[in-house]
Amino acid sequence: MIHKPSAPTPMKGILLAGGSGTRLYPMTLAASKQLLPVYDKPMVYYPLSTLMLAGIKDIMIISTPLDLPQFKRLLGDGSQFGVNFEYRVQPTPDGIPQAFLIAEDWLQGSPCALALGDNLIFADHLGVSLHKAAARPQGATVFAYQVRDPERYGVVSFDETDRALEIVEKPTNPQSNWAVTGLYFYDNRVLDFAKQVKPSARGELEITDLNRLYLEEGNLQVERLGRGCAWLDAGIPDSLLEASQFVHTIQARQGMLVGSPAEVAFRMGYISADHLKDHAKRMGKTELGRILFDLASAEEKDN
C-alpha cells in the first residue's frame, strides 16, 4: 500500500551510484553495477523508487565520470516519472558522505535522504515509515535489518530500552545482528556534519562516522525492519541473483510490481493515467509494460 503525503516534502534526495563494482567483476568491467538487471529492471530503479515513495521529487544521481552518461540516457530529466533529476560526478570513490559535499550547492540547506544504488528494500507499509522519516523535523533516521553476517556491515546495538547505543563499521565482534541499510534521512545540518567526518584507516569517509555524530547528540532514530520486510544489498553475485529471484517471486505470485518508478509516480499522483500509458507503450511487448498499461486502464475505468 502506497501512503500518499498530504503535502509535498521539501526534502531532497541523493542516489549514490558510484564505485567500481569490483566484487561483481567481470560483469562490471563494461557496465556500472547499478545498471545491471535485477530481474526485469535496472538495479538503480529500486532505490530510486524508494526515494520517490518517500515523497521526494528533487533527486540527484551521483556516479563515476565513465558511467554518468549511461544514467542520463536511462533516466533523462525525470519528467517521465514526474520528478526532477540532477547529475553529478564522483571523481573517485572516497566514501558515502562525500555525496553531500559534491551536492553542497544543490542542497542549499535542505534536509536530504540518501539511497545507495545497490540496495533494495521491500515492505508492505514501507511508504508510511519513509514519510515518517522524511517529516522528522530534526535529527537523522536510519533503517536496520537483521542479518546472519553483521561483520560485513555497519552494525547498530541497542540498550535495554531499545534505544540505539552504538554504531560500529564492520566490527570483528558484532554486538548485535542489526545491520544499517543503505537508506539514510538527515535534517538540514547534514552538510555541516559531513564536513566534520575524517577519512578512516582505509582512506574513505565512512557513513557510520556521520551517523555516529547524530547518535552522540541523541538525534539518531533507528527504524527496525522486522518480519515481512526484505533488504537486499545486490553487491555480490549471490545477492544479485537472490534479489532477482525475490523480485520475480513477488511479481509472479502476488501480481504487484517491485521497484517500478513509473508505478510509484502514478500512485503518488506525479503522473496521469495517460502519461503512464505512454510510458507503458515505450516498454514494448514486455510483461512490465503490460502491467503498467493495465494499471492505468483500471484507474480510468474506476473514474
Provide keyphrases for this structure.
single chain; 303 residues; alpha/beta; Spore Coat Polysaccharide Biosynthesis Protein SpsA, Chain A; 11 helices; 23% strand; disordered N terminus
Task: Outline the secondary-structure elements.
Elements: E1 12-16, E2 37-38, E3 41-42, H1 45-53, E4 58-63, H2 68-75, E5 84-89, H3 98-102, H4 104-107, E6 112-116, E7 119-123, H5 126-135, E8 140-146, E9 154-158, E10 164-169, E11 178-186, H6 190-196, H7 207-216, E12 220-225, E13 229-233, H8 237-254, H9 261-267, H10 273-282, H11 287-302
Parallel strand pairs: 1-4, 1-6, 4-5, 8-12
Antiparallel strand pairs: 2-3, 6-11, 7-13, 8-11, 9-10
Domain Nucleotidyl transferase: 12-248
GO molecular function: glucose-1-phosphate thymidylyltransferase activity; metal ion binding
Keywords: Magnesium, Metal-binding, Nucleotidyltransferase, Transferase
Describe the structure.
The chain is α/β, with parallel strands linked by helices and 303 residues long. It folds into two domains: 12-269, Alpha-Beta Complex (Spore Coat Polysaccharide Biosynthesis Protein SpsA, Chain A), CATH 3.90.550; 272-302, no CATH class. Helices cover 34% and strands 23% of the residues. The protein has helices at 45-53, 68-75, 98-102, 104-107, 126-135, 190-196, 207-216, 237-254, 261-267, 273-282, 287-302, and strands at 12-16, 37-38, 41-42, 58-63, 84-89, 112-116, 119-123, 140-146, 154-158, 164-169, 178-186, 220-225, 229-233. Strand 9 (154-158) and strand 10 form a beta hairpin. The radius of gyration is 19 Å and the shape is globular. It catalyses: dTTP + alpha-D-glucose 1-phosphate + H(+) = dTDP-alpha-D-glucose + diphosphate. It is an enzyme of class 2 (transferase). This is Glucose-1-phosphate thymidylyltransferase. Catalyzes the formation of dTDP-glucose, from dTTP and glucose 1-phosphate, as well as its pyrophosphorolysis.
